[in-house]
Write a structure and sequence with these properties.
It is a single chain. This protein is mainly α. 73% of the residues lie in helices and 0% in strands. It is built from eleven helices and no strands. It is globular, with a radius of gyration of 20 Å.
Length: 215
Amino acid sequence: MRIAILFFSVTIHAATFMEQAQGLTHSLLDQIIKTPFIQELSNGTLINTKFRYYRAQDNLYNLHYADTLALLATKTETISTKVFLFSAALRTTQALIPTENRTQCPSCSAYSRYERAQVDASFEQGLAAILPCYTVYATVAEWLYNHSTANNPYGNWIKHYASPGFDNHTRQIEDISDTVFAAQGAPEQRAMLEIYRNSTQYELEFWQSAFNLGK
């Protein structure tokens, strides 16, 4: 009797960086959506003083973020990635508001320092650190766009971040991160995921701080 031995080719899907990162930070994103700042922003009841404070702190964050993106761009030899990051730094500077106040609130300052430290450490770590600024905003903007009340006084701000342009930039940086992640060994991949989670935690703390006017 002949025994037929069959070999099946099985393709195992390796989870991408974004798939793993989103699973790791799902609860943090849920907490961000549930912050009083986002909830009141969605129904238009957020007092303008808190929104203006947030915008001022976000402006200070972007001052540092633009430098961080530009520095990160110098650490890759992939031309398309370099162009994207330098362009992202330029777009960030174009959104800046002239200000004489250079004092970041504690959560904002800690976030900026953390991102810069990861960029100083390596390109891969820096990429993981700067990414939540895109992905969290894209998620929050989509939620706000779908849950915003009619005639919301913050409607223009919501529409800006929910625009196809911002979403496209987010998808690009996610694709870059997936590619970089796939080329790393297991220890480096774990580090990237941990750093992404830490930056998402800073995002949560920043929203909480904005509602409490930096306290």
